[in-house]
User: Fold this.
Amino acid sequence: MKVIPVGIWGGYPKANGATSSFLIEHDGFHCLVDCGSGVLASVQNYVPLEKLDAVVISHYHADHIADIGSLQYSRLINYYLGKPSPVLPIYGHDQDEENFKKLSHKEQTIGIAIQETDIISIGPFEVTFCETIHPVYCLAMKFTVNGRSVTLTADTEWADRLVDFAQGTNLLISEANLYEEHLGKAPGHMAGSEAGKLAKLAGANQLVLTHLPLHGDPAEILAEAKGVFEGNAELAVVGKVYEV
Ligand SMILES: [Zn+2]
Assistant:
């Protein structure tokens, strides 16, 4: 499979950037993970919007869902133009009913509820989930195809259960939103050292850091991760194709 970072920022995007989001592809199937601010503009660099086959949402914070409404409008406008696309499934948990309902829009998109215990097929992928530790209910996810996997932590502070969940994964995409001096002061997020520890304990082959802060120099976060994880680690690069 191919994994392409669409956005890398936490909270809000840098100018012309996008919040943390990834495109996961295999066999011509395109699945978007999270759809926050700037994502709709950015993802079109890699796939036309009408070719998206599925979207998975980790949680309902604005930096993960802000562009869902515009995505729905893109399909609605094509429908009015006489070029309707198939109904787009948007997977998200339903522990927040009000936000879950917004995933469905007329004939354009349909919300599909996911549970932590689910093992579901999305196109060619087997997808599993793990609850993270975050101020709102949030699911980490693992995409597996042909015995190879990418695990995305979504938003979380350190959680032991993620070590088991990510065990043996080929590519770990971990949030690393905090500088070390902010550890323990901002709930629901990890620092680079923790992302590195997760990659190490899970035996991941490769670590890619995302949900980065706009302040300071994220290279420091990468250095902290590399201090713990001896494998290949880097900050996510928008548009880079990671072959898994
Ligand atoms: Zn969040």
Summary: The pocket of zinc ion is lined by residues 59, 61, 134, 155 (CB under 6 Å). The chain is about 20% helix and 30% strand.
